[in-house]
Amino acid sequence: HFSTGARFVEDNANSYLDVHPTEKALVVHYEVEASILGEGGGHVLGERKEGQKIIRVKSLSPSTDVGALARKVVEECKLIPSSRLPQVEQLLYYLQNRKSSPVEGKMEKKEKRTAKPRELTPFEGMELNEEASITRVDEYIELLYEGIPEKIRGSALILQLARNPDNLEELLHNEAALGALARVLREDWKQSVELATIIIYIFFCFSSFAQFHGVVSHYKIGALCMSVVEHELKRHDVWREELRKKNKSAPENGSLRRDQDKAVRKYHGLLSKQEQLLRVSLYLLLNLAEDTRTELKMRNKNIVGLLVKVLERDDEELLVLVVSFLKKLSIFLENKNDMAEVDTVERLARLVPCDHEDLLNLTLRLLLNLSFDSGLRAKMVEVGLLPKLTALLGDENNRQVAMRILYHISIDDRFKGMFVYTDCIPQLMQMLYEHGEEETEAELISICINLAANKRNAQLMCEGNGLKMLMKRALKMKDCLLMKMIRNISQHDGPTKSVFIDYVGDLAAEIRAEEEEEWVLECLGTLANLTIPDLDWELVLKEYNLVPYLKDRLKPGSAEDDLILEVVIMIGTVSMDDACAAMLAKSGIIPALIELLNAQQEDDEFVCQIVYVFYQMVFHQATRDVIIKDTQAPAYLIDLMHDKNAEIRKVCDNTLDIIAEYDEEWGRKIQSEKFRFHNNQWLEMVESRQADESEPYLYDNDNDNDRTDLFYSAGRKHTFLCIDLFSHVYTNTETVGVGVD
Q1: Which residues lie across from 49 on neighbouring strands?
Q2: What DSSP assignment string belongs to 567-618?
């Protein structure tokens, strides 16, 4: 005879215990010995093979009793002798304190992503005392032609067989059995919930394997399940309404109260059976929905509306299934739009938080898919999900998904301020602090960057030593994203801006050609935001020798456009200081700005910021003459005076007003250009009159006043001021008089 055995060999140097390199698991290396014994029991032939067993300990956490867990491992694994208990305990202790590796983290995330509904088990009332046999299928088919009780018994026996995958192939070829089951389901499903549940369960067993989907489709079981679900949901509405009416009539005597209790018990009994039917029907549909064409057919029959209606139930296993189904559907835009039209978010909100771990995780992942839609994000905030999601930041299993949803919500400016009313920001700051010198999670720093764009949020972030911690860590790690967050904080006027005075030197020291452009961009952007009156910018520029760097970076193509733009903004900020403006003007920075203006004339942001620098320069006595007399800046400003961008026009007008006030010659040129622009149509008309001698009058005197209104829509008052200066343009003074009266 042939015997095999597995044993743990202590004396063998090749057999040992170890920890898994990436997972929370022990690895048992062992040997299998196969022996062929002779008739007298003597050893005739033997062979040894090495093997290994992985014992996963997912429940291991910092609070786990390692000693108790080690004893349990030794008891349950026959390959480990009790003498190895101390070693098992030592290895478990090592696993408990080992930091999660990136691979392990990814594997855990993968496992959570593939979370799916628990496999169906036989429902209550479906157990039979007899054991089914594949050889007696014909007998079971005969029962399907009898009354309802016999049909239930026959289908339950076939279900016993179908639950064993080895029997599915043979049942598949028994067309009589499948045809009879499909017929009974079509004809009798309304008469018996138990019968419908059992037969759909049989087809569910087939639907669990993709190669058998054809037979389920052939008998149109999917369409039938859709009808079953729709009908059962309507029945539930009727039951609930009847129960409500009975509860409404307040019972005064014991008899009525007993009737009411009986009605409640009956309702719960019906509900329990109905939920079994719904669960098996929806699970079958979920399996069939693996084919996107079948899924589209379900969508056309309003599968989304039916699933969302089931969300009001309390059965957790049914809810896990429904949320899984909705999550699968939500990746398609059309399905997501269907969910937006019904109360999906409102019904999901009640499931956050909940005690069922899988249900909570699946609900959050569905909400994450829906949160890509701005309207659904607004709905999430409206139904009060913001504080609920914030509370989940402390839940290690769901923190990442919750943070991603919060990130999507933080994208909308209208919702940024609502985070102030939760404890989200203190939690986020604590997480940043706990990261120490490790790389910050993308989700964490991204949500912080978004929230820092709100003034009140920024103030919360700076409370205590918040800014000091952020700045210290950003400068030490040269973390561009962390500095982007700091840059967003620095843009707000008020008390937060003055806190940055202590860090001006540290930031200025980072602005060097040797540093990475992205890093310099964030540091420079932060400095450029610091419009603080008491700050001695001249000292900063001199001490850190920033003027040559700023001038070099103004050359078109010397760096990325984003960095060059920040250099221009920085120049505008420091030019608020009189001495700084003079220093920059003497360094020849204005011609460099004009050259950059020529190169970037199509980019409104560049144009606006360069014009703002000119505004700052003409504002100071020390640099005004340089701008007006030594550069072509005023001419460029005149060209931009009528730009299509309102902000550029505004800054240009303010700058030109100052120039016109201090320089008469430029004042006349500016006035002339303004007149020409406002009277352009009128001037063109007059010139055409001069060219065409054959028409002495362009129009009748009766219409003069009406026509001139068109040409002076910018305002007559302004035209009056300019008319004396340019009267030489006209040949007929009477016409001019009529035009401006």
Answers
A1: 32
A2: HHHHHHHHTTSHHHHHHHHHTTHHHHHHHHHHHTTT-HHHHHHHHHHHHHHH
**Measured in Å, how far apart are the chain's first and last C-alpha atoms?**
126
In the chain, which residues have pLDDT < 50? 1-14, 101-114, 694, 696-741
Cα–Cα distance between 522 and 474 in angstroms, integer?
A: 11
Distance of CA 120 to the CA centre of its chain: 33
Best CA proximity match to 154, nearest among 171, 132, 179: 132
- The beta strands (E) that lie in 587-710 are given as none
Amino acid at 262: K
Residue 3 has what pLDDT? Answer: 42
pLDDT of residue 121: 61
Q: How far is residue 27's CA from residue 425's CA, in Å, rounded to a whole number?
A: 42
pLDDT at residue number 29: 79
Q: Tell me, what's the pLDDT at 714?
A: 35
pLDDT for 32: 65
Q: pTM value? A: 0.72
Residues 6+ apart with CB under 8 A from 295: 289, 329, 332
Give the DSSP H/E element, type plus range, for residue 553.
helix 546-553
Alpha helical stretches, state H, 249-291: 254-288
Distance CA 423, CA 425 (A): 6
> What is the rounded distance in angstroms from the CA atom of residue 526 to the CA atom of residue 523?
5
* Per-residue confidence (pLDDT) for residue 710, from 0 to 100: 34
- Other CB atoms within a 10 A radius of the CB of residue 252 amount to 8
CA pair distance 48, 14, nearest whole angstrom:
12
Instruction: Find, among 39, 44, 91, the residue nearest to 70 by Cα.
Output: 91
The per-residue DSSP string of 453-505 comes to TSHHHHHHHHSTTHHHHHHHHHHHHT-HHHHHHHHHHHTS-SHHHHHGGGGHH
What is the rounded CA–CA span in Å between residue 346 and residue 352?
A: 11
What is the rounded CA–CA span in Å between residue 264 and residue 256? 12
The whole-angstrom distance between residue 225's C-alpha and the CA centroid of its chain comes to: 34
Helix and strand tally (H, E) in the chain? 43, 4
Task: Look up residue 584 and give its two tokens.
Answer: 């920059």
Cβ proximity of 132 and 158 under 8 Å: yes
Alpha helices in 99-164 (DSSP H): 102-113, 137-143, 148-162
Under a CB-based contact definition with an 8 Å cutoff, are residues 607 and 643 in contact?
A: yes
pLDDT, position 2? 41
CA distance readout (Å), 617 to 363, 609, 654: 58, 13, 12
Closest Cα partner for 660 from 590, 721, 596? Answer: 721
DSSP state of 433: H
Question: Can you tell me the distance from the alpha carbon of 622 to that of 624, in angstroms, rounded to the nearest whole number?
Answer: 6
